[in-house]
Backbone:
């Protein structure tokens, strides 16, 4: 089977609109979650991680000019703009043709253009744009991608599942390269829902910490361009080593009590990559900072024999970005691996889970050749993916 | 390696089929709720969790139960049973219910029991819980039923040895429009019984297109 390399990428969050800007912010310990008062989002102030709207419009205007699109800023929804900016940044870093049938376009989202259900947007956009396939087509057509978008909507593991699917199709030779993008925006819909579960913390979230009391919501987009066209890797590129999903079969909105199922997703992904726990340089886990999720993850890490591997969560920086999280956090993990760096898990001070996982409390250099990224979500779903660097 | 479709089911307004034969008929209903409730009761499953599900999950759940009446799941390693489903309208049916609950600030009542169903893969979770299935699962979206989308995904799971067997299908519901086609895919020789050996279909895009058309 052909190796699948990451050729380029992008992250857009509250911390910036490029991978570079986001990585610099993470290394500097900058937190993007801010107390926000916006009546269109929620009746009372909440800590949220929002993409700066002015920056978004500015960037999008530039892209409209670049692609010579003769339409106004209002022709695209907020999510479509985020995705288009993210994809543009990733594909413009490499000189490849993306308009041939050998290019697969995979899109990951949980709620798509869900804000279009709000009264204030009812007249602005066609009713069809609420459908995920119409939203994906709008984004794909912007770039002239030849294939119908492959759309994954599988709760909070969507982003990892999108990468996994592209990885599997590419290594089998079904396509030569893939543009894998994920995005979700913050809307009244999503915030009111999580608030009804009483799962939102009143302060920026604190994954794995003893004082954690819930998640912080965020928005953003992430893109990875995957390729099989590399004959010999000069050493800088990272490849996908393996991936797996599993289901808890326990509860639709609460995680497994034992962590066994996420544990075997870890084990299956390592098996596919032909790695053992000792090879995993760090685990970038889901780490939402809800009491049950983080506890379950610690057990899963124990189940899979990974207690020696350092663990972090990026949710303390940019919140839980839902269907974008798997993409955004995979990109950041890949760059941390390239930079041979363990990044501090923001919001963590003292361990508050039952298994003795090694949460990264300070940035640190480390020689390592692989890392593991995981996610879990509503519906009992779990996913794990492994990234590998050939020359360390 | 060759896979076959060893059982399949279909549900459309007024009718349900299993393995090509009519399983249930009720032309006197007006709403989905009026159709699905007596149908569920007739299946005699004794599974009260059903009543908490949203309409999309109810539809997918019953379509899968029609199949599992003919498949003995205890023959398989439940960590190696995959579920790959797709539809067009995602969870829009429940999305509209949740949105309705927050549209009016003076009458604001978002509910976790509605919100949890605003994800299409919850239906997969419900099927997994019912039968303790823990293998690979995925929910995909396409405008219309696309056999190639499901076939490629499931075929790849078999080729890479990620599953022993896989439930796959199309379950779409929005307001009073609904349709479900569910198929159980397994390799020949694993658990093909005398009872079902007569109705095996090759697992292919052509077969899936054919089953969808016949619904």
Residues:
């Amino acid at each position: 089977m052909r190796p699948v390399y990451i050729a380029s990428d992008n992250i857009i969050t509250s911390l910036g609109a490029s991978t570079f800007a986001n990585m610099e912010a993470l290394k500097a310990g900058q937190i993007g979650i801010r107390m926000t008062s916006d009546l269109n989002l929620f009746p009372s102030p909440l800590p949220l991680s929002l993409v700066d709207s002015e920056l978004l419009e500015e960037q999008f205007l530039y892209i409209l000019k670049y692609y010579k699109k003769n339409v106004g800023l209002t022709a695209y929804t907020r999510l479509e703009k985020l995705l288009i900016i993210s994809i543009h940044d990733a594909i413009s870093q490499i000189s490849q043709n993306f308009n041939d049938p050998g290019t697969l376009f995979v899109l990951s989202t949980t709620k798509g253009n869900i804000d279009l259900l709000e009264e204030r947007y009812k007249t602005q956009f066609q009713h069809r744009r609420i459908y995920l396939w119409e939203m994906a087509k709008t984004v794909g057509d912007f770039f002239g991608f030849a294939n119908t978008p492959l759309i994954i909507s599988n709760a909070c593991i969507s982003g990892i599942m999108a990468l996994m699917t592209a990885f599997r199709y590419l290594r089998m030779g079904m396509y030569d390269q893939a543009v894998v993008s994920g995005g979700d925006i913050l809307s009244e819909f999503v915030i009111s829902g999580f608030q009804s579960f009483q799962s939102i913390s009143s302060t920026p979230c604190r994954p794995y910490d003893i004082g954690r009391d819930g998640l912080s919501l965020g928005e953003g987009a992430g893109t990875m361009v995957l390729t099989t066209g590399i004959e010999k890797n000069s050493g800088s590129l990272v490849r996908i080593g393996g991936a797996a999903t599993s289901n808890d079969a326990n509860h639709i909105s609460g995680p497994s009590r034992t962590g066994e199922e996420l544990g075997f997703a870890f084990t299956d992904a390592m098996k596919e990559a032909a790695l053992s726990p000792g090879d995993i340089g760090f685990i970038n886990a889901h780490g939402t900072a809800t009491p049950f999720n983080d506890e379950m993850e610690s057990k899963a890490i124990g189940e899979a024999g990974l207690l020696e591997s350092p663990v972090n969560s990026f949710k303390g920086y940019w919140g839980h970005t839902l269907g974008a999280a798997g993409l955004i956090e995979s990109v950041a993990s890949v760059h941390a691996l390239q930079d041979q760096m363990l990044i501090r898990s923001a919001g963590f001070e003292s361990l508050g889970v039952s298994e003795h996982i090694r949460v990264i409390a300070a940035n640190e250099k480390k020689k390592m050749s692989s890392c593991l990224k995981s996610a879990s979500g509503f519906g009992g779903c779990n996913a794990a993916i492994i990234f590998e660097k050939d020359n360390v | 390696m060759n896979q076959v479709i060893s059982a399949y089911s279909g549900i459309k307004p007024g009718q349900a089929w299993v393995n090509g034969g009519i399983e249930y008929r009720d032309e006197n209903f007006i709403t989905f709720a009026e159709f699905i409730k007596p149908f569920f009761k007739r299946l005699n499953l004794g599974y009260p969790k059903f009543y908490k599900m949203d309409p999309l999950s109810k539809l997918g759940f019953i379509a899968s139960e029609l199949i599992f009446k003919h498949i003995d799941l205890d023959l398989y390693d439940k960590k190696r049973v995959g579920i790959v489903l797709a539809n067009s309208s995602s969870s829009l049916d429940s999305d509209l219910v949740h949105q309705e609950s927050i549209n009016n600030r003076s009458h604001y009542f978002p509910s976790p029991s509605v919100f949890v169903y605003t994800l299409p893969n919850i239906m997969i979770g419900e099927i997994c819980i019912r039968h303790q299935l823990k293998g690979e699962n995925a929910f995909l979206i396409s405008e219309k039923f696309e056999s190639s989308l499901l076939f490629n995904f499931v075929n790849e799971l078999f080729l890479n040895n990620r599953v022993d067997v896989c439930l796959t299908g199309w379950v779409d519901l929005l307001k009073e429009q609904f349709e479900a086609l569910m198929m159980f895919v397994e390799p020949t020789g694993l658990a093909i019984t005398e009872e079902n050996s007569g109705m095996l279909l090759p697992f292919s895009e052509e077969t899936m297109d054919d089953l969808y058309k016949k619904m």
